[in-house]
Specification:
Strand content: 15-25%
CATH architecture of the largest domain: 3-Layer(aba) Sandwich
Structural class: alpha/beta
Helix content: 25-40%
CATH topology of the largest domain: Rossmann fold
Largest sheet: 7 strands, mixed
Strand order of the largest sheet: 5-4-3-6-7-9-8
Radius of gyration: 20 Å
Shape: elongated
Number of domains: 2
Low-confidence stretches: none
CATH class of the largest domain: Alpha Beta
CATH superfamily of the largest domain: Vaccinia Virus protein VP39
Order of helices and strands: HHHHHEEHEHEHEEHEHEE
Mean pLDDT: 97
Number of helices: 10
Bound molecules: glutamine
Length: 279
């Protein structure tokens, strides 16, 4: 089968899905180990038998709804290419807003050798984006899943990042005696009974990375309560949260004594990130 034929076949197979054309191109480029530009430049190149079978299998998985990031085993985030696994959430573009907020604060800060902690690091996306932009910082990413710790460590190596390390820890549990200048987290925050959990790609992602009690705020509350003893004076606490949780997260931070509390919107103009300072 030629590249152009393979693509039109796949696009037909994926008809009615969210993004048939993009999905088909990402999957084929991955199997051929080429860029997407290659697909346009060489439409008449033919797939060998192995590539054809791999492509058919991958398209069949996508037809069943499996996320492209799990099928190809990787996803770009920030400037990095990250390996993914079904044990962790797939990195999302909106989380780059959280990275940007932390970087803005870090760049305004006088100190260069910042100690940063990413709670519930998953693929390591936030920790590694920050470590790559702040080479003098030392970043600790924690996750309660050992699979995530291994994956994030592999992502650090693959992206040549040496100032981030990853530990198994249930939130702060293994961090006793450590303090940080920045604690950042994209914790699970979706309401346990939300119908959104039964839609699209999210169905395939681990519930433990997505949901947190009836109002979605259990883990955020736990982190806000526990954080002060792990924060240096003047430190930043920054969260990603649900589009409808800005008020709640601001109020929780203020009630715990955080200052300069503010919420920032994502690329879809929804409340998505809230930060506060521990003075
Ligand atoms: N933002 C993600 C979503 O909408 C949820 C991520 C999370 O719970 N941390 O699917």
């Amino acid at each position: 089968m030629r590249i152009d034929e393979a693509l039109s076949w796949a696009i037909k197979q994926l008809e009615g899905g969210e993004s048939p054309s993009v999905d088909a191109k990402v999957i084929l480029a991955n199997i051929l180990e080429k860029s997407q530009t290659f697909l346009f430049t060489w439409p008449d190149k033919t797939l060998d038998a192995l590539q054809t079978n791999q492509f058919k299998d991958a398209i069949a998985r996508r037809r069943q709804g499996e996320p492209v990031a799990y099928i190809v085993g990787k996803r770009d985030f920030w400037t990095l290419s990250l390996f993914t696994s079904s044990h962790t959430l797939i990195p999302r573009p909106d989380t780059e807003v959280l990275v940007e907020q932390v970087l803005n604060w870090a760049n305004e800060n006088e100190r260069k050798n910042l100690a940063i902690c990413d709670l519930g690091t998953g693929t390591g996306a936030i920790a590694l984006a920050l470590a790559s932009e702040l080479p003098q910082a030392s970043v600790t990413g924690v996750d309660f899943q050992t699979e995530a710790v291994k994956l994030a460590t592999r992502n650090a190596q693959a992206n040549g990042i040496s100032n981030a390390r990853f530990l198994q820890s249930d939130w702060f549990h293994s961090l006793k005696d450590h303090t940080f200048d920045i604690i950042v987290s994209n914790p699970p925050y979706i309401e346990e009974t939300s119908p959104y959990l039964n839609e699209g790609d999210v169905r395939f992602e681990p519930k433990t990375a997505l949901t947190s009690g009836l109002d979605g705020l259990n883990d955020i509350k736990h982190i806000i309560n526990a954080a002060p003893q792990f924060l240096n004076k003047g430190a930043l606490l920054a969260f990603e949260h649900g589009f409808n949780q800005g008020d709640a997260v601001r109020n929780l931070l203020l009630a715990s004594g955080f200052t300069a509390v503010k919420t920032v919107r994502d690329y879809g103009d929804n409340d998505r990130v809230t930060v506060g300072l521990w003075e």
